[in-house]
Amino acid sequence: MITVSQDRLCLQAKEGLKITVTTMLEEKTVRKMIELYCRRHHGTGKKDLCPSCAQLLAYCVERINKCPFGTAKPVCSKCSIHCYREEKRDHIRQVMRSAGPRMLFHSPFLTLRYLLRKILFSACRDRRARQADN
Ligand SMILES: [Zn+2]
């Protein structure tokens, strides 16, 4: 009995750790993008954010932490839920368009991780769609 509950605890801990790592990397990616965007468009210094971008970041972090998919979280642009409020979604789209291409030079690891997840998620979704068609 003890081993069963220990196994379960271990599994829960592993799952918790995976969620923490996923959340941390997602937060890091969005923070970096908003920083790049804010520096270029609002003239703020490195690692600094203007009030509106700081608000956007806080909002994004909140959404990431509330994401119901946990470790299976897709990239937001490919998600079926679209949990962002209209004006925040517009703002983050501008950020992505502006900072996206520059991300590869500033944070190659985070960018490659993001692109890989985007491709993988699209592939999974296409396969599910094909299975549903058959
Ligand atoms: Zn800004």
List the uncertain runs. Answer: none
Structural class: mainly alpha
> What can be said about the biggest beta sheet?
none
Count of alpha and pi helical runs: 4
The fraction of residues in strands falls at under 5%
Mean pLDDT: 87
Q: Tell me the count of domains.
A: 1
Distinct bound molecules: zinc ion
Overall shape: globular
The total strand number stands at: 0
What features would you describe in this structure?
By secondary structure, the protein is mostly helical. It has one domain. The mean pLDDT is 87. It contains four helices and no strands. The radius of gyration is 18 Å and the shape is globular. Residues 38, 42, 44, 49-50, 52-53 line the site of zinc ion.
Care to give the gist of this entry?
By secondary structure, the protein is mainly alpha-helical. The chain has 4 helices and no strands.
Jot down its keywords:
134 residues; binds zinc ion; 78% helix; mainly alpha
Task: Record the SSE blueprint.
Elements: H1 2-42, H2 51-66, H3 86-106, H4 108-133
The protein binds zinc ion.
Zinc ion binds next to helix 1 and helix 2.
